[in-house]
Amino acid sequence: MKFKAEQLVELSHPLLVGKENFPYEPHPLGYISPDHWYIECICTLGSHVSTHIEVPYHRDEHGVDCKDWPLEKLIGEAIVIPCLGKKPREAITLEDVKPFESKIHQSDMIFLYTGYDQYFREENWQPYPYIDPEALDFLLLFKPKILGTDASGIEIPGEKTQELEGEPNHVACFANGTAIVESLTNLKEIEHCRSTVFVLALKMEKMDASPVRIIAIKDL
After folding, report:
1. Contact 25, 186 (CB under 8 A)
2. Is pLDDT at 33 greater than 80 in this prediction?
3. Looking at the 3D structure of the chain, how many domains does it have?
4. 210 inside domain
5. The pTM is what?
6. pLDDT per position as a tens digit, 124-172
7. Is residue 127 in a domain?
């Protein structure tokens, strides 16, 4: 595949020491002197830190983990659906996504562009616009490889924690064979074109999620 530098778009946030909402603590080990630098790092790394992908093991002890998530589901074409102007805890509805029906292909990656990446690492990084179950059911008809958002989540808000309520949107995606990506960025750069996207997840055993480097190659 040949491409130009201007076709490449970074869709993931960098990992910054002391800035993340989930653990990220690199610890350099090695020999350091004014004349010689040699280190190796040990890192405490939360599975949901920064831009990350979530797979079925997140909600099912027998579900597929990051090690065994299929490679072909990490590479594919993507469509961006704009959902701008939504308030925190406001639903992304069927009426928001249905107009894009003719543009969504089977097995696409579907990315929801909320504009909430502007709040990444801010105090108000949560709550976020969530996906109404009716809208989710419609999108899952296309068997997307990934459902992603530039907000920090997709789940229905509630009075209890999402963990105790069971995360029905997550469960529905995983039952459909669809992974979830949260905290994307730069979706505006690929909003009006189809792109080939690489979600570079680590093959980690017994991990429910993985921080990812996500690269889009957009059509010119």
Report:
1. no
2. no
3. 1
4. yes
5. 0.94
6. 888 999 999 999 999 999 999 999 999 999 999 875 556 556 799 999 9
7. yes
